[in-house]
Glutamate dehydrogenase
Amino acid sequence: EARNPHEPEFLQAVHEVLESIAPVLDTHPEFVDGGILERIVEPERQIMFRVPWVDDAGRLQVNRGYRIQFSSVLGPYKGGLRFHPSVNLSIIKFLGFEQIFKNALTGQGIGGAKGGSDFDPHGRSDAEIMRFCQSFMSELYRHLGEHTDVPAGDIGVGAREIGYLFGQYRKITNRHESGMFTGKGVQWGGAEVRTEATGYGAVFFVEEMLAVHGETLHGKRVGVSGSGNVAIYAIEKAHQLGATAVTASDSSGYVLDEAGIDVDLLRQIKEVERGRISDYAARRPGAVYVEGERPWRVPVDVAIPSATQNELDGDDARALVANGVRAVAEGANMPSTPEAVEVLQAAGVLFAPGKAANAGGVATSALEMSQNAARQRWNFDDSEAKLRAIMGNVHHAAFTAAEKYGRPGDYVAGANCAGFERVAHAMLAQGVI
Ligand code: NDP
């Protein structure tokens, strides 16, 4: 902690992992002797840089850019870019740290990284977004490459931003290097199902957890937070599997739609018009908008928090439990506070941490890299079937590791132990580097 002052989110993520992996260390003393812990909490490389750009009024703006290249022991660095005013070193480090274990859990050959900027895209024109992205990439490009570091989207970085970032990389390097970025448009190297993958994957994970107990999603009420990429496609898949998703939100409030969120309308407002969740409530008969609150007091069987870190606290968890929630799967990264996780697990709620439940996004990014390397394009149905299988494997890895290490049913421990074990073996094999 003395080494990383003012980094509460990073310390929270590290504590969560270290608390669960004690049984792995007991079984593998060579991990302790090999200094795995000391090394794994220290990023291989941290890049911070100035991002100057000129707004539409001709004023100079300066933001800060980050790329934390945490671990490349399993493959090229891989992890998204986040553009949000709250971004700081602590948040990017926590996300990069989580990414190592998440990527290991997918079973694919990808390392862990995260990046972004404190730039706020809300209310900016397309031209401003483009100039910002070009300036950001003008510095970052030298650290990227299909065999080095492969970014993707995250909060505030969607198809539009990825297009501008990729275009600038191509211009500067004179290389159409498709595999250096994932989440690209399907017309220019992107993979089918990448857009849907994180949300779909989270719902597939819920299906897996319920199946262990002989239950399905059919007829269940689902509460989702957020209204971005992850939330929209979690809602869509929940509906396809016979559940009803009744909430969505943004940082201003949430909407309750008892008839089930209308995904077409939500996509139109969020992806096309770049509007607010209050606009959805205004245009959808029967929907109710609740300003300034989060959706966790609404009774649901399944909750999928899909907005941001620490958006579901101990009181929210108690409210969910009191209303009989059966399963909670983190679509976002670390949306539940440590207290919330404790409350949910103590009440016997099936709880899936983000590094397992939202791994479908990065797993499909790795499929995009495979397609780029082979100059192939797989169709939607095959790609979705692969995602479905990967989520089954992620569930299996977390579930069996939890049993093996004496914590049956504890997906937090299971995901951490399984991810850590794979990374630690590789680190040991590759020597002190
Ligand atoms: P988007 O930018 O598409 O959407 C983010 C949503 O969360 C918006 O509705 C936004 O509302 C809300 N939100 C963001 N910050 C806050 C905040 N401080 N308080 C309340 N609401 C907030 O991002 P994604 O859907 O891509 O990402 C959502 C989460 O999922 C993140 O934690 C991300 O790390 C995680 N994730 C994403 C993956 C992906 O493939 N996209 C993969 C794995 C994890 P508003 O517009 O008001 O800010």
Notes: The mean pLDDT is 97. DSSP finds 17 helices and twelve strands in the chain. The chain has two domains: 8-19+41-178, 195-348.
